[in-house]
Hints:
The protein is elongated and about 60 Å long. The protein has four helices and no strands. It has helices at residues 10-23, 27-43, 48-63, 72-79. It is mostly helical.
Amino acid sequence: MATTLNVRNPRAHALAQELAARRRTGITEAVIQALEHELERERAPIPLAQRLTAIVDRSLAKAGPNLRPVTEADRDALWTR
């Protein structure tokens, strides 16, 4: 027996359409993926420190092997654009 999920909310529909378009999939599949992802996050919450460590690790991997400290001139250049 199939059960129907009918969401009559323009914002929910727009978000589902955008996600489907970005993933090049149908709206139903996009909604299923999004719900599965959120349930996975709810079932196994990762502590903030662990999430931040993962972000740092990914950032360092993208930075490459030639790391150098940020100088005061580098910081100033960010504000003078």
